[in-house]
Amino acid sequence: MKTPKKLQYYLVFMMLTGLSWNSKAQNAVETAATAYHKVKTGSDEQFLLAGKYAHALFFNGRKKEAMQLLQKNINSAAKKADGQYAAQLSGIAAMNSKILDDTVAAMKYLKQAKRFAERTKELSIKGYVRYCEGWMHARNDQEHQAIRSFQQALTFFDKAPQTEVVISRKTAIYKELSSIYSNWKAYDLQEKYATLMLEIAKSKNKPMDVFDAFMSMGYNYQEQYINQPDQHKLRDQAERYYLRAIHFYQKNKDKMAVPSDLSFAAINLANLYLQFYPPSYKEKSIAYAQLGLEIGQQTAQFAQVASAYGIMAEYSMKAGDNTTAKKYLLAALAALGKDAVVENTIALSLYQKLAEVYEAEGQYNEAYHYYKQYVKVYEEVYNTNKMEQGRRLEAQFEKERQQQQISLMHALTATQRQELKNLKLSKENQRQQMEVIQLEAENRGQELKLSRVETQRRAAELAISQKELAYKSRMNTVYFLLILTFIIAAALVYYAYRQRLKALKQKENLQVLSSMLQGQETERARLARDLHDGLGGILSGTKITLSGLTLNNQDNTTKSTVSKSLDQLDVAVIELRRIAHNLMPELLDKYGIEEALKEYAARMSSEELEVSCHFVNYKDSLEKEKQIVVYRIIQELVNNAVKHAEAAQIMIQLSEYNHQILITVEDDGKGFDLNLANDRKSAGIHNVQSRLEFLSGKMHIDSIAGTGTTIEIEFPIDNNVKYG
């Protein structure tokens, strides 16, 4: 038998309070009373303890005392400028009034709590009042409003400091939302909040909340399976979570405050086996029903006792043992009658089964009696308008019967013969009445069967509509995913196309730059050869000719002039060789950049300037083409330092690490202002940057006027690595 929604809400509230109907409650009252009276009257601490004291009184049957205590403390707390304590106590009073079914008082206290909450900045209190509002909406079947209030409460709680109290209240909201979404068959949302509840319960070591989360997850999967009966995995998941809840409760029995929770879980599992598992699970189902029965009797949870008897009766009826089934059904009905609030859903099922059992045994009067009870409850729960006509017919029948009795009383004053005649007529009337009653019972039975058929037809139509809606929803999701996939694919193609264009453009620029640099080096080589072979040969011939003149007998003046010209020719030849060497250093081509740079540093050094070159961990990793570019960059930087820095020392360092080349050119010259240099870049710096683009490298200049200049250049050995 499925637990009705009102009973679920009732059990959920019992779980939230953490209180139970057992001997522990009296101890809780005494403990709460001692703590309450121990602190100063009217203090903040006493207001906080008043709520716990009122809870203990309320759930120990002393409801009037609890409400008086709350009202007394609300009056005192209302005098404070900060309304947080008055708001909290008013919220508790509102929920207690709702449990007592005093709707007017509940709404009065809720409005009062909201008014006091506006007088405080305490976010946790604002959230608590919204939680109370949502709790009351949920129990008034205003679930949309309940969700809105719960979400507002979570907003306040998320912004408040995460104390134990705040976390506990958030867990309570997760339970409420999980229950509502379960009723709506929004299983994804129900599972979301049940999972959040489980995570918090485990992290905070709260056994009651862990148990509730397991039960919520089990109920979620059970409802999903009812709507998708071919998905046995959902049924097995429901069984798994119910079992986890039962085993967890038994393992942590000393820490669980509500003994009836174990009965609730056992009956849910037994009912799952009864409705959705093969007959081979009968023994398991009956065992858990027995467990639920025992705990339900111990804790006076009569609705659970009735449910347990009902499950055992179902198995007896399936086995054809109507006698035992009748015994269980009557025991269930007796247990249900002990409950303060009779659950009509359970009563309806019991009356129907009893009528069927008596009908199968041929006891039609008893069957008719329970059919009447069934119809009565059915009228209250499902179909008041349809059953109103039956009530009118019964009233009319009773009126006619009373009129017949009046006529019979008048007949008593007649003669003995007339009296006898009237007695016979009375007997005939009674016989006719019995026939009418029997006919009416048959008609009611037919109406009941028709009502059942109509209910089944509507349920089938509803199931078909739900399946159609689910199918349309799935198709909409598929279409959305297809469109989203197409958009993402188009975006990726466009991105790849842009990257391809960028790569091609960069490659084209590098090819152009490479061609330009290669052309420059070719032209330098040609100029070097022309200077060395052409102008160098001319100068050498001129020197030989002039040397011959010195052998002749010339006067001293002429000899001095010729000797001076020879010295100048020597200087010109040296300068020519230096220029040709700079244009195309032979050492670079033959021995690599290391020897070429060391020779260049030695050649640039003089008495006024010291140029040094160092290599660190260099493994001759650069291609010949890149070595030429590096040589030209260093040559350009050193020339700039010589021309502009007025330096006494220039240091060149080339190092290799992690497939990167790092070049540092540092001088101790006069430095320069970087801002001015950025405004008007020199041709030398422009040449360096052009060559760096070919190397995919980057340059950093560090210079302050009067302190020298340091230039760092970094580029990858492999050009696949790029710098922004």
Task: List the strand order in the largest sheet.
Answer: 1-2-3-5-4
The number of helical runs is 26
List unreliable stretches of 5+ residues.
Answer: 1-25, 384-413
Structural class: mainly alpha
Which overall shape is indicated by the principal axes computed on the Cα atoms? elongated
Terminus-to-terminus distance: 71 Å
DSSP helix fraction: over 70%
Strand element count:
5
Rg, Å, rounded: 50 Å
CATH topology of the domain at 1-184, what is it called? Answer: Serine Threonine Protein Phosphatase 5, Tetratricopeptide repeat
So what's the CATH class of the domain at 1-184?
A: Mainly Alpha
State the CATH superfamily name of the domain at 1-184.
Answer: Tetratricopeptide repeat domain
CATH-defined architecture of the domain at 1-184: Alpha Horseshoe
Largest sheet at a glance? 5 strands, mixed
The overall pLDDT average reads 79
Percent of residues in beta strands?
A: 5-15%
Description:
The chain is mainly alpha-helical and 724 residues long. Among the domains are: 1-184, Serine Threonine Protein Phosphatase 5, Tetratricopeptide repeat (Alpha Horseshoe); 590-716, Heat Shock Protein 90 (2-Layer Sandwich), CATH 3.30.565.10. The protein has 26 helices and five strands. The chain has a five-stranded mixed β-sheet, covered by helices on one side. A hairpin with a 5-residue loop joins strand 4 (698-703) and strand 5. Helix 3 runs antiparallel to helix 4 and helix 24 runs antiparallel to helix 26 (683-695). The radius of gyration is 50 Å and the shape is elongated. Residues 1-25 and 384-413 have low confidence and may be disordered.
